[in-house]
């Protein structure tokens, strides 16, 4: 195994050496590396930047990261993490940074070194061949070590200290939702707004600011970039739990910074549910038990946790630091907690399970998980956040965004995604039917919600839950007004749909005179927007027709606005239209499939990330011969003796039968294997030939980041919308952030 790793590292170093003119930023330190790397990547916003995936900073992870470099890349951003002496030299040979950033020296992995000084010296090996190094002036230990060791390099520091060589901080002002930072840079004063208020995020943002200034990106562009940032949880998973609970799984590590991020994610997803924390001892922090418990308790109390359950010896003494209103239970071992889970009253709670690997809290996750079909539709919330930012960056200034999450968010699960999008400050959500909107309101969603296809008998329900219907015909409008006269005098927000050539729902030109006369007397109605739907925004052959649709909408809008004596918002563009017709962004745009990384125009295909992964499990492997028939109607055969793998997904789960009989492949261990025979209701049979590396329990990917859903749609003669919306409710939904 060691020889394989060494060979991989030698190959990665050789690959890196082919790109001698590439600028490479190497990031090391004890905390913040991944967050800073991801933020820099988003703020630079150049598709020719290559970076480490997620938190790939280990001996293996760096090799895999560096191997991504291509000749078209203009900048590389790679992070390097170590846990013992002697590790950094191999990482330095692979990364060979021209520019270095040191984040901070902290307590993570301290047990592998004699002291902090030894750990710092080992980390600084990364910068031996760098031309420029960036660091925090106020971090005295780091400051002194870098200045002593690298006297002949360009050193850029930032901090409160006036001797900082790049910029000095003049003021930090924390507001309710953001922080304003005033700095002195090149004899001028600049103000930056950072969308965080916690100390760790502010420090990470200052490191980003320093790097971007060294890269000569303007302060105004940096300030714009800050507005698109969000915290980067590393490996958070969310799933449905027993007793109508939701579970957030972070059973991978236990450090203070990751704990803060996990609690933020819990607060984001909990909605109106009470929050419960299951927490193990924290390892390798360098703090004594009392100091650590006091620190963790203070963090917990900021998030309105109602119940803390501790596992281990260190957390056993946390109770004395918690508010009396927080229920506290403690167990020495994970097995003891599992035995007592039925007495914990966790029904309808939002539960975060956070701990160090040694405690094996994944057993708690398993015990609390809803028993369901093991086929899984995984939705990567970080990918959705990334895609959202990509589209935001294409919008005209002042244009608002409607996130369309109808059909259970195209199969993703609307409640969970709605919470995520509300947290990301989208202006509106749009769903198809009233019950979808009511469900979101009951889940605690407060952002405005448009109902695109409202039933006529649901007006009172919409008023009750503050939902805003699309109004598309005279009869519907009159029914709304009649019900309002009989039952309520509350103002009611509506959105007027114009039919400009789709010949689907909407007012046509001959309706406008009657519509205006009704609106003139409808004092309790407030028209929030006037909009239409383009029939072929992605097709350049229909661009002339698209423009005629927009011109007709403009004409209708002006007539109606003149009668109303105020100007509602106007919108017409969907995901494809946002990219192809920036001149028609108007007041709002509607983003649907683009959220999930599906770009029908290929306009920003290289920058979007696929959010969905549909997975199944191998449940049986059997031998097969050329004389055997496979599946219903004996449609399947093999050309040579070999093996079949049966996976637990079928057409009842949404895998269309068109994909059968070798038309489509699934991915197992990174290799494609064809579906053989007809797809069954609950099962699918895969021809794996003589590959004896596949085992029962292995994961089979139907589509995902490396296997686009568009390919399955093409094989089945349909579109990605249909593939996603057909995925059965019995397929387990899993939400991953990072």
CATH fold assignment of the largest domain: UDP-N-acetylmuramoyl-L-alanine:D-glutamate ligase
Q: Pairing-aware structural class of the strands and helices?
A: alpha/beta
Total E-strand runs: 31
Our count of domains comes out at 4
The number of helical runs is 23
End-to-end Cα distance, whole Å, is 28 Å
The CATH homology group name of the largest domain: Mur-like, catalytic domain
Query: Quick one: CATH class of the largest domain?
Result: Alpha Beta
Overall pLDDT: 89
Q: Work out the strand percent.
A: 15-25%
Broad shape: globular
From the 3D coordinates, which CATH architecture of the largest domain would you assign? 3-Layer(aba) Sandwich
**In this structure, how is the largest beta sheet organized?**
12 strands, mixed
Spatial extent as radius of gyration: 28 Å
What percent of the residues sit in helical stretches (DSSP H or I)?
Answer: 25-40%
Low-confidence stretches at least 5 residues in length (pLDDT < 50)?
Answer: none
Protein architecture, described:
The structure is a single chain. The protein is of the alpha/beta class. 32% of the residues lie in helices and 24% in strands. Strands 10, 11, 12, 13, 14, 15, 16, 25, 26, 29, 30 and 31 form a 12-stranded mixed β-sheet that branches. A 9-stranded mixed β-sheet has the order 2-3-1-4-5-6-7-8-9, sandwiched between helices. An 8-stranded parallel β-sheet has the order 23-22-21-20-19-18-17-24. The chain starts with a helix and ends with a strand. The relative contact order is 0.07. The model has no long low-confidence stretch (mean pLDDT 89).
